[in-house]
Amino acid sequence: MIIIGLNAYHGDSSACLVINGKLVCAIEEERIRRIKHWAGLPIEAIKWCLKYGGVDIKDVDYIAISRNPYAHIGRKIIRVLSRLPKSGFIKGRLQNMANIKNIKSQIAEALGADIKSIKAKLEFVEHHRAHIGSSFLVSPYEKAVCVTIDGFGDFMSCVRAIGEGSNVNIVDGVYYPHSLGIFYTAFTQFLGFPKYGDEYKVMGLSALGEPVFVDKMMKIIRVKHNGLFELDTSYFVHDSKGVEMTWLDSEPYIGRIFSPKVSELFGEPREKDKEIGRNYADIAASMQRAYEEVFFHILNNFHRKEARGDKVDKGGLNLCLAGGCIQNSLANGKIYEKTHFKKVYIPPASHDAGTAIGAAFWVWNVLLGKERDFVMENPYWGPEYTEAQIEAEIDNKIDGLKNLGCLIDKINDRIALCKKTAKAIEEGKIVGWFQGRTEWGPRALGNRSILVDPRRKEMKDILNTRIKRREWFRPFAPSILEEHVSEWFEVSYPVPFMEKVYKIKAQKREFIPAVTHIDGTGRLQTVSKTMNPLYYDLISEFHKLTGVPIVLNTSFNENEPIVNTPSEAIECFLRTRMDVLVVGNFYIKRKGR
Questions:
Q1: Does residue 87 have a pLDDT over 60?
Q2: How many CB atoms lie within 10 A of CB 527?
Q3: CB neighbour list of residue 366: distance below 8 Å, 6 or more residues apart
Q4: The pTM is what?
Q5: Which of 96, 370, 442, 496 is least enclosed, having the fewest CB within 10 Å?
């Protein structure tokens, strides 16, 4: 049984291939198109998945799409008739629905195939069910409570459910126009970060302020006795007018969401690229705190409802989370402190890209009733390259490498390669590290990473000056050997996909200033030998040299999607001021570095 899963005509478009209940590969369209958060039909991702899996589109049995135009159709019609939003908004929504329903013929045309030869049945999986599938159905838990939270998907923004085996029972949820994701995105825009996906910048900014405006925030978003929440929609325009959105063959765009009424509480919105004063930092801190209050209200209420008698497995309730809001690693890192959940699974792509996998497994496990026997224990599901392919790309760019006076050394022994790379990091060099399969999800997790010494405080500024050009207040992340977490962090639960922020122990912060944020936290990745043996060995060699089992890990890119191919890695190395590039077994060093 062959299933193609798709997140299409939405931000972070993606595709995956599932064969007989096992994930074979997955990739986001942005990695191939080189446009961040690319929205549209992920045809290049589909082509790559088919090629990697060695199958033809004619062999595919199901195409699972993580949207259902017919979901909650009655509510949608009533909302449109009662509110009559802008005609442009309605036209855009109708076109998006038409694209989704016509997706099979579009795939056939893009692949040059006769649509009659494509036997695959289309399955439209409601958006939040696909989110649940991306988490619970690939989790290690037989039974779990499931919570999804995002902006909107198929007219819902939050769903709570119980998963057991291959069954998922939807308990309750929050419908349009109320949304925790909309609340966060609106204030992201208000703070002068208008681009799709800029919310992570506000998370970093929040550490610089104090949550002095929480009471005002809680006037805008209110918790309810049933464990859910609602917005005061007068502070937003999406309910009354609609918001212009672009989801077709480009970087996605969302128009302004907040209404002028927000200024009555918080003053004028910040203009993009203007100075960030203390007031805006306080707004960011207050918004983050309000988000967390609502988030933990949702979780704790659900825990109370489900933690009764025989509903609880030995060891307590398991929790599976997904949705764009679950990219909020600050809140995720407080789950163990603020709730009674002690077993939490968050997939490497909890945002909309992950719904491609969720839709595919929803079809396999829920619709077809197949038993679950796949667990996503690692994030490495993209392309990998042979030594011959890497060498060919080096040869193709040999003139550029020679112009920089680069020295190229081939090191076949993996420990020798790790020792040499660790030594370069220890000496203060910036290292591009390109190995194995591309990561699935938004984080570089040791296969497409830029690595530096976390002990050197100056490395943050050096990275931004030479390569990243990020806002000064955004932190860099630590990758740490899994067995050493309790020595360095106040919480010791594993974080394999860099999905949580923990407090670094106060007595340890001075030793790793480059990865210690202003509030004493770090968004960590715990590295195990089973998940990524080569990356583990590299950090182990750095540990032997320095006594520190941590490296600073940031994504291998320069204001672009994370590099996907050896060619892109070499090009990034050539146009930036990186010192060393380790791509496969090849160690490339700039002259004089």
A1: no
A2: 30
A3: 129, 133, 137, 166, 167, 168
A4: 0.95
A5: 370
